[in-house]
């Protein structure tokens, strides 16, 4: 009887976390919805009135917010994936901005994130773009020029 009660308590505490976790399908649907809203905004800019454009911008903003919330829910429920761990670099931390130019020692293959899909990072559209870890930040870097294209600060816990 005691084992049954303990098992029930364990299941009761584990279930809310499993229910809150966003499945890949839900996040994919949110991303698809965002792309659809962006297409509709583009069409409204071409063919619609000022009111239509304003309404479509609001819809795109709402779709982006929903996608962000899905990602945050996933991140919150999978904290172990985003744990910072013991990560050391032979250089000091710099607060990089979009458009900054990095030296090759900051973004060599040793710092590449080999599986960006594990962290739900977007797929780089260009083969020259790579996700690079810089302490607890993640940078999208053009490896040919060293230019920073995107920055996520405090990505790892």
Note down, in words, how this protein is organized.
The chain is mainly α. The chain is about 45% helix and about 10% strand. It has 3 helices and 3 strands, in the order H-H-H-E-E-E. A 3-stranded antiparallel β-sheet has the order 1-2-3, with no helix packed on it. It is flat, with a radius of gyration of 20 Å.
Give the topology string: H per helix, E per strand: HHHEEE
Taking the sheet with the most strands, its summary is: 3 strands, antiparallel
- In DSSP terms (H or I, runs of 4 or more residues), the helix count works out at 3
State the low-pLDDT regions, or none: 15-20
Radius of gyration: 20 Å
- Helix content range of the residues, please? 40-55%
- Strand tally is 3
Protein name: RcnB family protein
Pfam family, one: RcnB
Keywords: Coiled coil, Signal
InterPro entries: RcnB
Using brief descriptors, characterize the structure shown.
157 residues, mainly alpha, three-stranded antiparallel β-sheet, 3 helices
